[in-house]
Amino acid sequence: MLVSLAAFVLVLGVLIFVHELGHFLAAKWAGIGVPRFSIGFGPATPLKFRRGGTEYVVSWFPLGGYVKMASREEQEAMAALEGGAVEEEYPPEKLFENRPLAARMVVISAGVLMNVAFAWLVNSGLDAFVGRFEDATTALAAVEAGDLPPQAARLATVPNGTTVAAVNGDTITRWSQIQDAVINRGADRLRFDFAGGVDPVIVDIPRSALEDRIKIADALRPNWAPRVGGVRAGMPAEEAGLEAGDIVVGIDGDTVRSWWDLQQTIDASPGVPLALTVLRGSETRPSLVTPVETVVRDPVTGEQRTVGRIGIDADPPTTTVQYTLPQAVVSGAERTWDQATLVLYTLRGMLFGEISPRELGGPILIGQASGRLARLGGTALLAFMALLSVNLAILNLLPIPVLDGGHLVFLAVEGMLGKPLPLAMRLRLTQLGMLALTVLMVFVFANDILRLIG
Q1: How far apart are the first and last CA of the chain?
Q2: CATH of the domain spanning 228-309, picked from 3.30.2350.10, 3.40.50.300, 2.40.50.140, 2.30.42.10
């Protein structure tokens, strides 16, 4: 619990600081007065100091932060969130609303840009100084025919265990290259070449058909060995004595050839005792385990279904890909873009009902994930912070008053009309935005609590 709490404070504190630092530096550049820089909302704690005309504080509600800029218009709307009004008087040229429109848009956008830059820097740094741990698998355990779009049906005829040699002429040496080649929308055709004399498969698919390309990528299952990578506390696998490194070679007398075989059998057997044959070192031993019923959401159909779970994690083969500094800068940008695409795809799925809002997580989930990743080491935690920073950037661009996206909408309307919206209207919309965010926070807290008790 202490590790999770410390990791949560570190992760959220750094990301909030980075975001608000962007606003702060841009405001100083634009000549706008900044009376307060806060980590957290609401009244200030005793942790505060003043320097250079700005009060630096830690406030009582830590789920965010703010840079309070000199403004006569914003005092009433934001006083509750921003620790009360500021009594200090600023000359007209120091007020936010009196600066040029372009400068104000830069100031509002700067927090998002800083979060993106932070993610890019972290991703590039990890690639340059640590390397990227990649799944070394190039063989298919199976191709799920039911998940394939119609134009890719021929892929289901590829024999299990076949090695993918190339996609669109590019040699394959790790699993991520298969995924990237499928989702990459550079051509209207996918050509899969296989080792072992298996005939090539050509799939004609428009480069714009991102959803179908993702379905193809999801339908390809990597040929991992049925080796246990980790055992979760309190689950049937732990009670049955399974350990990390065990290889499940049989279930109920049938041979298990891959992790996919193992997962499929367990999924299909909630509440049904399974007789496992486990290889530990050079010794084979029996183990009886009963999968618990678990409700999951199908990633393709979005429907809920009940499956079996015993609480084990896979142990995929990995290889470390090293990058030079220039290569890392490029690969870091590519990874940051991939993370942004994932967030946008998730938001789109929620908007169109393809992904349940129940998948949303809040501070409790972030704390749990931070704690788990902190135990794995600094590299895992930094990678998580980069992903979360991209999330924060994109969510802040949502056109909700109070968020940066809402402020940018106000400024865009001002640019089109030649004058700002009436102050009373902006105040009312800001209050509605605060209400919407409050409802959202209550909802994600409820999701987190339901996960804890479920």
Answers
A1: 19
A2: 2.30.42.10
Decide: helix, strand or coil at residue 137. Answer: coil
Cβ(216)–Cβ(152) under 8 Å?
Answer: yes
Interacting residues of 396 by C-beta distance below 8 A, sequence separation 6+: 19, 111, 112, 115, 403, 404, 405
| Neighbouring residues of 88: CB distance < 8 A, sequence distance ≥ 6 | 35
Contacts (Cβ under 8 Å, ≥6 apart) of 138 = 163, 164, 165, 172, 173, 174, 175, 178
Q: What tokens were used for 51?
A: 């320097």
pLDDT for res 357: 75
Instruction: Enumerate the domain spans of the chain.
Output: 135-222, 228-309
Domains 135-222 and 228-309 share a fold: yes
What are residue 353's DSSP bridge partners? none
**CA pair distance 257, 161, nearest whole angstrom:** 9
Distance in angstroms (rounded) separating the CA atoms of residues 335 and 339: 6
Q: How many residues does the chain have?
A: 454
Listed as ranges, residues in the chain with pLDDT below 50 are none
* Fold annotation for 135-222: Pdz3 Domain (2.30.42)
DSSP 227: B
Q: pTM for this one?
A: 0.78
